[in-house]
Write a structure and sequence with these properties.
mainly alpha
């Protein structure tokens, strides 16, 4: 699926955030591959748990960056993170892997990633660059 490859439009211009986004996208790609290869349900469940844990880590990391740099849209941005974490938790904890609509889940994850990264996270990146948060930009 071509939507699972990194594109320049996903870059927000902040090294740490972009690096984490690449891992996030790669994790979605692993889940897609597991679905396509019809891997064992236990492997898929573990991959979904990996995605959940990584998303939780990434969101916490990104939220800390926002707070440390007085990002004005912190609350609305955090709300979007909270909604995705809840959706992932519901998928992983309450559904039997056999009952997951795999195509729908992958579409949702890709769509959410693309929309959130290319719009919401891009605003954060722009803010950080304009506020001269050089400690975040130095490795980019």
């Amino acid at each position: 699926m071509k939507d699972l490859n990194w594109k320049n439009q996903y870059s927000v211009g902040v090294f740490e955030i972009d690096a984490e986004h690449r891992i996030f996208l790669k994790t979605i790609k692993k889940i897609y591959h597991a679905f396509e290869s019809e891997m064992d349900d236990e492997i898929i469940k573990l991959l979904l748990e990996e995605l959940y844990k990584y998303a939780d880590f990434h969101f916490t990391s990104e939220e800390n960056v926002m707070l440390m740099n007085d990002y004005p849209d912190y609350k609305s941005h955090k709300k979007q993170h909270d909604e995705l974490i809840q959706t992932l938790a519901n998928t992983i904890n309450f559904l039997d892997v056999k009952k997951i609509d795999k195509e729908q889940l992958i579409r949702f994850l890709i769509q959410w990633f693309k929309e959130h990264t290319a719009s919401i996270d891009l605003k954060l990146g722009t803010y950080l660059k304009e506020s001269k948060a050089s400690h975040l930009l130095e490795n980019y």
